[in-house]
Amino acid sequence: MHFAAEILPFILALVAGGMVAGLLAGMFGIGGGAILVPIFFHVFGLLGIAEDVRMQLALGTSLAIIVPTSIRSFMAHRQRGSVDTALLRGWIVAVPLGTLIATVIAAKASSVELRLIFAVIALALAFRMIFNRASWKLGDDLPGNPLKFMVGTGIGVLSGLMGIGGGVLNNTFMTLYGRSIHQAVATSSGVGVLISLPGLAGYVWGGWGVPGLPPFSTGYINWLAVLLLIPITLYMAPIGARLAHAMSKRQLEAGFGIFLIVISLQFFLTVIL
């Protein structure tokens, strides 16, 4: 009874986080990781998991949940015909390669380093979204290779280090090259698929045999959290996709930016305090 009373608040926190993550996955094409990582970090901490593995566990578990969420979100957006499938085909090697590189880095980095990486990237992207101007363009169409391949690899690296589906980075890339935010969001759900599958495998490998991990974990993936949140995020993702298509470009960008600032500041506080 005492154990149930202790564990119930954490389960409720995970459920609430899963609902928000699923909604954001569909709305922004981000896979929900940007909200799941800080939630997991704190919940795992409250459960007494050592700090030196907590951030890696949060990143790996987030990417595992993004697998079905991003697939579901991608299918919802593809039905609306707004996904750039040519870009996704060109990144079939680049994005997974970058993600696997990230899992190797994460296995060797400290918890503080990973939190700072997450916070700095999120804050930079937030200001770009909030203060975005139509004049902020690098071109009228996406660049060709090798630049496009390098960008895809970079998105994989940064996303793997943040435990996110890559939407936040792909949205920035595509809109800087003249694509609409709605097409960027739709395509980002596909990028999430290319990141989450190799990311899951990489974090399993990177955490294999590491001491201090909680029960029901394989490497840096906690399957109890995965099984609890997957149904919730899957249910909420199509709702988010419908909301995205009902909002204006400016509303999407401002909402996305404010959300990222809150998450970034929260992670800076965990490092300082």
Automatic annotation (TrEMBL):
The chain crosses the membrane at residues 7-24, 30-50, 57-75, 87-107, 114-131, 151-173, 185-208, 220-240, 252-272. Keywords: Cell membrane, Membrane, Transmembrane, Transmembrane helix. It is found in: Cell membrane; Membrane. InterPro entries: TM_pro_TauE-like. Coiled coil: none annotated. The keyword Membrane applies. It holds the Pfam family TauE. Its main location: membrane. It is a multi-pass membrane protein. Belongs to the 4-toluene sulfonate uptake permease (TSUP) (TC 2.A.102) family. This is Probable membrane transporter protein.
